[in-house]
Amino acid sequence: MAETEAAPLLKEIFNRDRLRHFAAETRAVHPGFDEERFLTLASIGLDDLSIMQRLRQIAAVYHEVLPGGFATNLEILRALAPRINHGFASMVLPEYVALHGHDHFDLSMDALAFFTRFGSSEFAIRHFLLKDLSRTLKVMETWSLDENEHVRRLSSEGCRPRLPWSFQLRELISDPSPVAPILDNLRSDPSLYVRKSVANHLNDITKDHPAWVFDRISDWPKDDPRTAWIMKQALRTLIKKGDAKALHHFGAGEKAAVKIDSFTVTPSSLKLGGAVKISARLVSIASAPQKLVIDYAVHYVKKGGGTSKKVFKWKEVTLGGGETAELSISRAIRDFTTRVHYAGRHPVELIVNGEVLAENAFDLSA
Q: pTM for the complete prediction?
């Protein structure tokens, strides 16, 4: 997830106002719906539940309150889908399918493809992958050719081996080859929404099988800007780690022939809530133009006193012989849900083509 102060409030997507919205809109499409019972059951322990626990509880309550079997209830939920006033909130509907649709495979697949247009069925489809990987992937391969971008995205996002906020697909972590036809079909998709998913999917795989990813994309058309974008984003974790093969893939595999005129971090000390400015001046000492991938790393102090390195993308430049590149960036030093800061010395590194070329630091006070 992105670093954002709003993250602690995400579970309020499913607050009591939203529950009342669900109840009223369900009654609008099914007049016999028991709003009071739905609200009572869906509110049980609500304050103590996480966002995903709330999502699942609401889906389970629908099964308790709706009057029919799976197929009948599904028709009610299909009518409800376009009336829900929040995309993430609508993910309750595919979650209902995940909980109760395993004995109705074809009906469930059609429902997930329908519901994903209003939010996403990415969490729900994983339960079917877990139960029958081969059969579910065959359906998802057809989705990768669908005219609707939301359905095409689902074909990739739903089978990511390490999808955030969901359980890992261990079988695909061990062997990603079953998803190859899906990724190949989407390698130059016209939708950025879809391309982001394909890139994230491949980036997941690089954490376990980088060689597989290089082999997969080796025949992809680099002259297609859509495909080139996917490949660059797919290799971003390897590039941050200074992986020579990944850097070489984008023409930056050679050692940088540069002189570091300056690398500064200001102020040198600050309190939590402030910001540091990181600046660098590089001069090419090569005779020919060279591609430079420039990153910086911050070694964040951990609670126990050690540090944890985080690499950030900075800039990519092609620097001619004798030319100079000047860079500057400001970074907020404040707590997020994904990172808590601790007092101490924070080393900062300048990384060019995967190699640390300069260091500095700032001190964070309590």
A: 0.81
